[in-house]
């Protein structure tokens, strides 16, 4: 029947990664910039997504909705931020979004939203890539690459190397991605010679 086909299609879309992890502009009203704006970032599910209501692009309240966008659950700004700026919203799949907030280079903080179950993560700092299938993220944490479960925040892997000196680890990890087989591929600069090193390492799904 038609309803069964719709549910099947949504299931396939939710499981499949987006073709590119690019931000979506959303459906916005208002000028933005120094002026007020309101943006909706819809999932493929009916009446579920993210919303941003902004006095300006630097001062917003951002939340998720399940039903009416006027009845959103608002995110509390993480420690160190008095308010949230306008987000960059990346739909990693049809129902799985990352709301990323720039807080001054190289600072960034992300919240993840799973539209089917209405899950929202705690703030995750310095996210570099996401393994959607296993719901893992890779982040730069001080002098280590750390892989965590997105919603629990539990660490599943920590990678430390003789990195070149830099104010932020992301400046010496020049490429990084999760491969379809679950391994993490990355290129980093080694020591004072800043020699590029390419690695591909296995990443577990759960803490060891």
Descriptive notes:
- The protein is mainly beta and 208 residues long.
- It contains one helix and 18 strands.
- The protein has one helix at 2-15, and strands at residues 23-24, 27-29, 37-42, 48-56, 59-66, 73-74, 88-93, 96-102, 108-114, 119-120, 124-125, 127-131, 136-141, 144-149, 155-159, 173-178, 184-190, 195-201.
- The strands form four sheets. Strands 1, 7, 8, 9, 10 and 11 form a six-stranded antiparallel β-sheet that branches.
- Strand 16 and strand 17 (184-190) form a beta hairpin.
- The protein is globular and about 50 Å long.
Brief overview:
The chain has one helix spanning 2-15, and strands at 23-24, 27-29, 37-42, 48-56, 59-66, 73-74, 88-93, 96-102, 108-114, 119-120, 124-125, 127-131, 136-141, 144-149, 155-159, 173-178, 184-190, 195-201. By secondary structure, the protein is mainly β.
Features:
about 210 residues, mainly beta, six-stranded antiparallel β-sheet, 1 helix, about 5% helix, about 45% strand, globular, disordered N terminus
């Amino acid at each position: 029947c038609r309803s069964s086909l719709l549910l099947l299609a949504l299931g396939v879309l939710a499981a499949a990664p987006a073709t590119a992890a690019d931000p979506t502009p959303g459906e916005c009203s208002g000028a933005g910039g120094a002026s007020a704006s309101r943006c909706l970032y819809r999932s493929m599910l009916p009446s579920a997504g993210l919303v941003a209501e902004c006095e300006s692009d630097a001062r917003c309240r951002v939340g998720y909705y399940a039903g009416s966008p006027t009845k959103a659950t608002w995110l509390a700004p993480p420690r160190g931020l008095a308010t949230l700026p306008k987000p960059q919203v990346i739909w990693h799949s049809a129902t799985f979004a990352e709301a990323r907030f720039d807080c001054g280079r190289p600072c960034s903080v992300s919240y993840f939203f799973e539209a089917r179950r209405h899950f929202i993560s705690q703030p995750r700092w310095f996210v570099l890539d996401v393994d959607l299938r296993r719901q893992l993220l890779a982040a730069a944490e001080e002098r280590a690459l750390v892989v965590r479960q997105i919603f629990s925040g539990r660490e599943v892997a920590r990678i430390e190397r003789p990195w070149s000196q830099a104010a932020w680890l992301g400046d010496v990890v020049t490429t990084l991605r999760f491969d379809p087989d679950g391994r993490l591929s990355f290129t980093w600069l080694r020591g004072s010679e800043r020699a590029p090193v390419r690695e591909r390492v296995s990443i577990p799904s759960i803490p060891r």
